[in-house]
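Reviewers of the previous submission asked for a worked example of the structure-prediction workflow described in the proposal, so we include one complete record here. The input consisted solely of the amino acid sequence. No template or homolog information was supplied to the procedure at any stage.
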Amino acid sequence: MKKQVLLSTMVVLGGVLSATSSAWAWTNDNPNANWSMPVSGNVRGEALSTSSGSQRFQARVENFYWNSTQISNMRNSSNYPTIDVHDNNSSGNVDGQGGWTTLPAAKLDVEDSAWYEGDFDTLNDEIEIVGTDKSQIQADVRYSFGAVFNVVRSNDSGIIAYAGESSAPICSSCDYNTVGTPIFIGSFMKNSLFPNSFALDSDPINGTAKKRSNQTRTIIRIKSVLK
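From that input alone, the workflow returned the following C-alpha cells.
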C-alpha cells in the first residue's frame, strides 16, 4: 500500500500571508518490488517573483531516494528512472520554462504534450528529468528536482508529478520515451500558490534564491493521511 500525506503549508512573511504551497509526501511501501518509484519524497508548489509581476511558480519534487535493492534492480533494467511534472488538464493554463535537479547525469526535457493530449496550443505543459547514467545514482542519497512554469491563464488546474521509467533513444536524434504506467507521487493546485503577493525573490533556474531582508517566516502544517 502506498501512503501519501497532504501537507498544507502557509508561509507568513512579516506577519502577512503572502504565499501558500501544498505538498504531498509519499512513501513506497514495497520498494524492493518496484524500483521506479523512489522510497519516499515530497511534492510541493512554490510561488516565484518576476520582474514583470507576472505569475510564475516552481513545482518541487524533493528529497526522493532509492534503496540499495532498487538501485541494483535499476541498473539491471534496460530502462532509466524518470520524474515527470505536468499540467493535468493540458489546457493552456501554464507554460514550462525550464528546471534544475541534483540527480546526476540527468536529461531535462521541457515539452508540449500535444501529441498525446491533442491540445496543440504550443505551450509547454510538461517538464521531466531522466537519469541517463544509472551508475552515478547512489542508494539512500536524497535528490531534488524543480520545474518552473509561467501561469498563462487563471483557470485552476492540478499540477501532477509522476515517477516512472523511460526507454533509451533508438537513434542518435531520438529522445528517451516513457514506458509502462507512471506512478502518481503528488500534486497541488496552482491557484493555491497566489492568494496575495509572492513569497520569494528568486531565480531557481540560474541557481539563485534569496529571502527578502526584513521578513521572517512562520510555517504552519496541517496533515491529512490518505491510504
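The longest strand covers residues 177-189. We consider this example representative of the routine output the project will generate in years two and three.
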